[in-house]
Amino acid sequence: MTVVNIVIFIGKVSRIQRHLTNRLARIGVSDASRGAAAVSQPASASAGEDPVSNKSLRTSQQKQLRIRHLQSQQKHLKPEATKNEASTITKSTKASKTSFISAYICLSLSHSSHHSHNTKHIQRSHDIQVPLVCLVILPLGIFLFGRSFCVYDCRSGGSSKLEIQPPKPNQTRSLLPSWTLVPNNVTNSSSHIKRRGPPCNWLGITCNMAGSITEINLTSRELRGTFYYFNFSSFSSLLSLDLSYNSFSGSIPNHIGNLSKLIHLDLSFNQFSGKIPLNIGLLTSLRILHLHVNQIYGSIPHEIGKLRSLNELYLNNNNLTGLIPTSLGNLSNLTFLYLYDNQLFGSIPIEIGNMINLITIDMSTNNLVGSIPSTIGNLTKLTYLRLFNNQLSGSIPLEVGNLNSLTELALNTNNLTGPIPVSLGNLSNLIILYFYDNQLSGSIPIEIGNLINLNLIEMSVNHLIGHIPPTIGNLTKLKYLALIGNQLSGSIHPAIGNLTNLIGLSLADNNFIGSLPQEICQGGSLTYLTVANNHFIGPIPKSLRNCKSLIRVRLDENQLTGNISNYFGVYPNLDYIDLSDNKFYGEISKNWGACQLLTSLKISGNKIIGRIPPELGNSTQLRVIDLSTNQITGEIPKELGRLTSLLILNLSNNKLTGGIALEMGLLYNLDHLDMSTNNLSGSIPEQLGNCLSLLYLSLSKNNFSGSIPFQIGNLANLQIILDLSQNSLTGEIPLKLGDLHNLEKLNISHNKLHGSIPSTFIKMISLTSIDISYNQLEGPLPNNTVFQDAPEEAFKNNKGFCASVRGLQPCMSNTKEGYKVVILIVLPVLGALFLLFGFIGIFCIVCRVAKNVEKEPNKTNCEKLFSIWSYDGKMVYEEIIEVTENFSNEHCIGVGGYGSVYIAKMSTGQVVAVKKLHSSQNGEMADLKTFISEIHALTEIRHRNIVKLYGFCSHVRHSFLVYEYLEMGSLAKILSKVEGAKQLDWMKRINIVKDITRALSYMHHDCSPLIVHRDISSNNILLDSEYQAHVSDFGTARFLKSDSSNWTSLAGTYGYLAPELAYTMNVTTKCDVYSFGVVALEVMIGTHPGELISSISSSSSSLSLIGHSILLKDVLDQRISLPTVHVIQEVVSIVKLAFACLHNNPQSRPTMQEVSLKLSAQMTQFTEPFQTITLGHLLNLSL
């Protein structure tokens, strides 16, 4: 638009303003004018329709199904623009004009309008519809032409309060094409805007016959902004307001109570925060109130009880706290009540029994306590009752049997006790029954056979006893039956064969006896069969051979018998099968190679004979093969090298012969290889050095010969164990083995190795156990912790070691008489040569130093290291070289992946830690990027719980960083020793965890840009003399940029890395949160919690079983006494927070700021005695 056009247009703005203001006043306030509805409104949801599908069959699907159906229930509210509403987008220059016009109209109507060049000052209109002008008019240019535009606040003239996002790039038509308005006297032919009529014709706006706005429906329009200045009082006739599925934020203003005629209010799926306004109670005509999936906090106001016309109340998926108000009992017309996924506490009010029209109650995933009120039996129209994942106690009330319309009853994951009520047999319409993860006792009532419509029964992890009643055979519609983790006994009644629709049968971890039912897969639909850890005997049912639907089978830990050579057919969908620890015999079937989707094959602990079939190499999806502890013979087939997805290969404790095929080097994803206790021979193939993912390697108790291939030193990830013991290996220990910096256990005992221990072993700082006994080794032992703390048995039966270790001679010079003559002859000659070379060397050094001083004064680029010192950088550099004796091993206190750490006692008396970066072969710094990253990070931050960087030096000879010296060393080192662990009482451990949270909270939330450490581990937490924790080692730290993605290479320590880093390199603060969770658990249990984390990351049923079978007191560090009453609450809270930080979904983890605040605040009071708290209890608690 040219300047002339702008001036012409400005002159017409006043008339446009009056036109719009008068028109909107007639539409929004008066009933004088007429208008037609722009879009027809769809029918509202049927009162009897529940938003959650009755096909939710698994615990892990409950939340997803609810959200999915809530979304689908509201799809009918989204207006669909017809083809006739589409407007043609003209050239970009015209689009710019329209955007300018729309913007200028709003600016002209602002509180403090401005003069512009030759225009008159436009006075503010006092019409109450002015704010709506901005809300309605401004999107014109934006939605029509894809322009991102920020709306100027029309009331205050302040900053933007509503930002309209542009359409997506691939969107070819406007989102609101009918929203256009042009002044009557604009006749410029260059304008492309077509007049579409007043707001009543605009998409999303509906008016009544009198022309007043009655409905606003802007669902799913990518809108965002706040309601701070939205004038609700201007819409006195408004009946429906639907702004769902947008990105509105801020609080819901109290003056929303001015919409006195409102019937339907839907603000769901936005980002609203703050509290529910008390004036919500003024909307007495309201029938539908949807505020779910926001960030609303505070308590549910008592005033909601005044909304006696309310039919639907959706407050789920927020951050609500406090009690459920008793006033809800006044809502006798309510049909749907959704309060799930909040933090509500207290008991369920007995007044809920007054809400006799309720169809659905969902209060799951809160912190509710107390018993289920018996008045719930009054709700005879109830079809869905979900109270799972709370802390409810007491017995299930008999009155539940009155709920004849009930189709889903979900009481799982609580603390319910007592028997299953017999009255449950009255619920003939019940489809889904969830009782798992409670403390229910007694037997399963025979009346359960009356529930002929049941699709799913889940009663796992309780204390149920007795038999499965034969009436279970009446449930011919049953698809899933899960009774895992009880104390059920007896044999399985043949009537279970009547369940021809059965998809899943889970009976593991009970005391069942007898044979498996022969007709267990009679219907041909069985998919999941889990009967592990019972006392079943006899053969595998014949019906399983042709059961093509099988996906997951667990028959392990029973006493099943029979020849399995021909028991199993080809299963096109099979993913997992475990036949371990039974009494099977026969050979491994070739059919397993034809199961193309098989990922896990476990047949360990049986009496299997014969060879491993080469056809197994055709099942290329295999990730786990465990054939250990059998009597398998023959050679390992080279075809296994095709299984490039293999993670675990365990062939130990068999009678295998021959060598290891070279093709094993192709298994680049393998992390666990165990071929121990066989009759394997030949040399260890160097190709194993290509298996770079290996964490565990055991070839012990075989007949391997030859030397240890130096390529084993390439396995940088090798951590758990390297066991080559009890073979016939010869030669020297390769120097390259010292590169295994992450290795924890090394056993090369009972071989024929000779020579000395390589000096590179001093770099193996992660070693906690070593055994080099029964070899022909000699010489000095490396001066590091593992050799100093190892028992005497770890070195015995060698040629002779010397070291300052108990049971060994110190390393001293021998002065035997036989060498005296040789010494007398050789010593003078050597002395003369030494003097000669000494003079030459001194001369060269002096010349070089002089040359460096003259020509290269800037080669030593040292910062002044200590402000309290008067030395310059060069003097400090020289003194560090001197006091560390040119970085002698005697001053080395630790070795890491990027450098070695030395203690330096300066002339001032100050003691510092010097981290010298490793050099490459050409003498240059091996990792300049790490060096710079650490300097960059530590010069930007100052915190008492982050190690202090005094200075750094980048020199052609040495590059190092100088830190404060922390006397106690690393947390990992202290926890690894009994004496050190005993010094860490519970109060010290609590404070250590708090120190770490403060440091990470500072880095993540107080630094700009924020810093992600990426390698939080117990090795990188250092303690001072007061046991205060300091986060160290910032070599992998990254500054996160808010305006771009943060992709980077993998860094960190195995066992502490967040699981999402397995499939994405996008680093976030939540990666540090996960690592913190590991460290926090490690502090509490005294060792790395790898096995515990693996168990809680498994399937939901296993999680429930394992979590509720392990007491917290049994997991805590047993080397110190149990926590006293003064610290119990803090210990429990830390463990609970640690579990929250270990959530597989990064978005579900708390932030470090939240963790720090929770640990600083008053701890949650747990009503359950400490002696009875289980891990499962803590896993289910909300933060």
From TrEMBL:
SUPFAM superfamilies, alphabetized: L domain-like, Protein kinase-like (PK-like), RNI-like
**Which Pfam family, any one, appears in the UniProt record?**
LRR_1
What kind of membrane protein is this, topologically? Answer: Single-pass type I membrane protein
Q: Which UniProt keywords are listed?
A: ATP-binding, Cell membrane, Glycoprotein, Kinase, Leucine-rich repeat, Membrane, Nucleotide-binding, Phosphoprotein, Receptor, Repeat, Serine/threonine-protein kinase, Signal, Transferase, Transmembrane, Transmembrane helix
- Gene Ontology terms for molecular function: ATP binding; protein serine/threonine kinase activity
What domain of life is recorded for the organism? Eukaryota
Which EC class is the enzyme in? transferase
Q: Which GO terms describe its cellular component?
A: plasma membrane
* Keyword field contains Phosphoprotein: yes
Query: Would the keyword ATP-binding turn up in this protein's UniProt record?
Result: yes
| The EC number(s) this enzyme carries | 2.7.11.1
Protein kinase domain location is 887-1171
InterPro entries, per database record = Kinase-like_dom_sf (IPR011009), Leu-rich_rpt (IPR001611), Leu-rich_rpt_typical-subtyp (IPR003591), LRR_dom_sf (IPR032675), LRR_R13L4/SHOC2-like (IPR055414), Plant_RL_S/T_kinase (IPR051716), Prot_kinase_dom (IPR000719), Protein_kinase_ATP_BS (IPR017441)
What is the recorded name of this protein?
non-specific serine/threonine protein kinase
Q: Which organism is it from?
A: Tetracentron sinense (Spur-leaf)
Highest classification ranks of the organism: Eukaryota, Viridiplantae, Streptophyta, Embryophyta, Tracheophyta
